[in-house]
Amino acid sequence: MINYTLLENSIALISFDMKNSTMNVLNQESIAAFDEAFDKAVKDANVKGIIVTSDKKEFIAGADLKMIAAVKTPEQVMEKSGVLHKLYRKMETCGKPVVAAINGIALGGGFELCLASHFRIAINDSKTQIGLPEVLLGLLPGAGGTQRLPRMIGIEQALPLLLEGKKLRPEQALEKGLVNKLVATKEELIPAAVEWIKTVGKKVQPWDDKGFKIPGGGVQTPTGVRVFMAGSALLQKKTFGNYPAPTAIMNSVYEGLQLDFDRALKVEMRYFTQCAMSQVAKNMIRTLFFTMNAANSGAARPKDVPANTLTKVGVLGAGMMGAGIAYVSAVAGLNVVLKDRSIEDAEKGKAYSVKLLNEKVSKGHMTKEKAEEILARIVTTADPKAVEGSELIIEAVFEDRALKASVTKETEAVLAPTAVYASNTSTLPITGLAEASVRPENFIGIHFFSPVDKMQLVEIILGKNTSDYAIAMAIDYVKRIKKTPIVVNDGRAFYTSRIFSTYIAEGLNMLQEGIAPSLIENAGKAAGMPVGPLAVADEVSIELMYKINKQTEKDLGKVNEGAEAKVGRLFMETLNRPGKKAGKGFYEYPTDGGKKHLWSGLAEHFPLAKEQPDVELLKKRLLHYQALNAVKCLEENVLTSPRDGDIGSILGWGFPPYTGGIFSYIDMIGVRQFVEDCKTLATAYGARFNPPALLEEMAKTGKKFYEEKTEKAVA
């Protein structure tokens, strides 16, 4: 677990090497082993300096969150936090120079160990990430990070890193002062650390020197006052008070930097304990760490299907989605055939990859040779026969059933019997699309989100006849392109598109009721959604929503009288306002580069009611309506687990992360209270808020979506 070597020049080399883990993490065992090794070096009079490094590819990925998830009382949190505080303080005050030799990823508690070292050297590898991302899981750096970082680089530079959880590349970390030196290769790392100990060997941290002053000014200086006043206002604007961790970070820095260092650590410990015990942190850790890691590891993959060796992927349709799919596939090392109706259209799709790769090269994130190598993997064509030899086809043509059927038949004619055919449809049932296939068992849905290169989630949809082989192929592909898969069963709009649309639909219901558009939008953002429902409608395109609704009406044989259908018809058939792409929808998009603003004509078509509701009620409507429809997906077996529902809701359409996802949101409120809320809303606003039978039963029996014993098993 910890390797100890005494180098020839009387320098102790302490290396993390956890045998039963792919990465080094800080847990009870590794902390104790490191403490023992460090004491050995300190007590050895012959040791002149200490180097801390890793024998694994990475340095230390952070604290083991199982350890945090297991705590039940504030006293337990403070005890565990205190162990690291004591250890890291020992490093600083041991009387011998300590160097952190960072050979890979150093995050969270792992980087806090580096901060407690007297000097930090890192390998300049673009894959290395350095930083304190705890806030992204509802926590704050609890091993001295909120106190050491601002004392090292100043309050103004440190707060954004702490509040946003930024992960920096080595050259960025050097520029901002998080590391002191970079070396080009692994072979140079330890010699550079030895050289510093021999030639400089400073044994005292700046904040332990008499007369130390915080770089750039302390809390009560003009700079400090300005930073905290502006920072507090900006924090409220961004978080709407939904996330306790950023506020705790601000308080910890503000209070701690006015105290001596050891008392400051006690302040940090108190705020860390508050965060660790909060429901927000528990929700975020469960979903954004444990559930996401399980999904990324392929937990849903059929175990008895051998691994697939993917080499060639055919992408049908070179529009926005197809172009993005081709790009992420090529970056992952796959050969891609990008097909469209004409070679010119296919080349337009490839141009998207050219643009993204050129940006990486210009920023120094990739060499020109590497970019050219990736581009060479994308072959454009208008010939259906060119996809021959592809193990996987991903169809990304327009949402038209007849067009998709034609493309399916044309393509399958040149494929091997083992090839899997996937549709990127966002709404059309897979079983129905598979009717055009001669091998429905090899037909599956692989639903990407836009923009493909940035969005992490991929929704895999099973048709009635989809085989385990096809599921395994789809998951292997998603893992290959380093995205997060969830697997759902068939149904109109599946899971993500179906529930995402309810956010827009409830916003449009509010609009029809005469609620002010600005109030609707602000309520959506205050609830924790990325943008308001009207802005979302413009982004995804009112025209697309209109066409999807027309196809649904055609399939079901009846006219949709819901708000989204009525408003869609008004905006497309009468007002000609199709959305952001056309520069006009619910918002106006000035061509001179001015800021977008709500269309003044909304008042004419949706007159304001005399009385406007409280924003808290609107927030509840927007989130509850999404959540109860998610439960319907679970009840109908479109979703097979709350965990997939939670991760899909956050990554798919931006359901507020502080909730832990759409099912954790219900648990956080309490199932019984949620059901009562829905009944009250149904009385006031209509039957769409009636809770499904599954929720009614859970409320009666006192069940939750996440029982205590289940959480223990996951942790």
Individual helix count: 30
The strand order across the widest sheet is: 12-11-10-13-14-15-16-17
CATH topology term of the largest domain: 2-enoyl-CoA Hydratase, Chain A, domain 1
Strand content: 5-15%
> What is the CATH homology-level superfamily of the largest domain?
2-enoyl-CoA Hydratase, Chain A, domain 1
Structural class: alpha/beta
As a percent range, the share of helical residues equals 40-55%
Shape: globular
Largest sheet: 8 strands, mixed
Low-confidence stretches: 710-715
> What is the terminal separation in angstroms?
21 Å
The CATH C-level name of the largest domain is: Alpha Beta
Mean pLDDT rating = 94
Total number of distinct structural domains = 3
> Count of DSSP E strands?
19
What would CATH call the architecture of the largest domain? Answer: Alpha-Beta Complex
Radius of gyration: 28 Å
Describe this structure in words.
The protein is an alpha/beta fold and 715 residues long. It contains 30 helices and 19 strands. It has an 8-stranded mixed beta sheet with strand order 12-11-10-13-14-15-16-17, sandwiched between helices. A 6-stranded mixed beta sheet has the order 1-2-3-4-6-9, with helices on both faces. A 3-stranded mixed beta sheet has the order 5-7-8. Helix 13 (320-331) links the parallel strand 10 and strand 11 (335-339). Helix 12 (279-296) crosses helix 26, helix 19 (496-512) packs across helix 21 and helix 27 (662-669) packs across helix 28 (671-685). It is globular, with a radius of gyration of 28 Å. The chain starts with a strand and ends with a helix.
